[in-house]
Specification:
Length: about 280
């Protein structure tokens, strides 16, 4: 059997690159996609970059057609879009684990549909693996930066937001996400004609988009609950049409699940400052 990283599909070239970045190796150096300001703030927060880590999955997205006049989730497509991202994220986490990292900051998730196949898309996760500096640590005894699954934490927060989060006494657990690919019903001919020139809500469109967003949000929240998170910060709710046409779209929710560093933690309330008056 190979190493866990190799078992997850990490190529040999990537393993050689990671070996050259391991702390303590002669001539080792780190790579990072953090800006200079982000790099300095991550260092100020007590973490040192180990190296750029990535995961990739080229995925064939199956075919599923919605009913012309019915709002409905396209389960096959929802599962494909989620699983492909999960594979990329897992491989990125495996690279970070191979470096002995405590977490990954500044994570980006990208999708690129390939010209050599209309149903093929590459899902890429990339971020900077970091290690906590024990000499700089203000955490309680026995505290681990890894989450309850034993994995390095992942976060899509900027370096500035990451620093602020730690200063407030919170730690990232992991990126949580939810996906829903939804077919939005077409209007019937006489419905469309009747709306010409009128200010009027289209209930079936409203219900479809509301339901699709709710499904994506609830799935993201369920992932955070599995990590025993207190909450999710930096949430983005994206509408991604991809290549499915105007009546089918993906709603994708993503954010960083967080927990307090100390169980008795409370955020200090700043004193109220009143303006001076004559």
């Amino acid at each position: 059997m190979g190493t866990p990283a190799q078992e997850l599909g990490i190529p040999e070239d990537a393993m050689r690159r990671l070996t050259g970045m391991r702390p303590g190796q002669p001539g080792s150096l780190f790579t990072s996609d953090l800006s200079v300001n982000e790099f300095l703030l991550v260092r100020e927060a007590g973490f040192r970059p180990l190296g750029l880590v990535l995961g990739s999955s080229i995925y064939h997205v199956g075919l599923q057609i919605g009913k012309w006049s019915k709002n409905m989730e396209l389960d096959t497509l929802s599962q494909a879009m989620y699983h492909a991202r999960e594979l990329a994220m897992t491989r990125m986490e495996a690279e970070a684990a191979a470096l002995g990292a405590d977490g990954i900051v500044g994570v980006r998730l990208d999708i690129d549909f390939k010209e050599f196949g209309s149903d093929l898309a590459e899902f890429v996760a990339i971020g900077t693996a970091v290690k906590a500096d024990e000499a700089h640590s203000r955490t309680p005894d026995g505290f681990s930066w890894r989450n309850n699954k034993g994995q390095p934490f992942t976060s899509d927060l900027s370096g500035q937001d990451f620093w602020t989060l730690l200063q407030a006494g919170y730690a990232p657990l992991g990126m949580t996400m939810g996906s829903c690919v939804y077919h939005i019903a077409h209007q019937r001919f006489f419905q469309a004609i009747g709306n010409i020139g009128a200010n009027v809500e289209i209930p079936q469109f409203t219900e479809a988009l509301y339901d699709a967003r709710e499904l994506a949000m609830s799935r993201m929240q369920a992932e955070a609950e599995q990590l025993n998170a207190e909450g999710i910060v930096g949430v983005q709710l994206l509408s991604l049409p991809h290549r499915w046409g105007g009546h089918t779209t993906e709603f994708f929710a993503i954010g960083t699940a967080v927990r307090p560093i100390r169980e008795d933690h409370q955020i200090a309330t700043p004193a109220l400052v009143l303006p001076l008056t004559d």
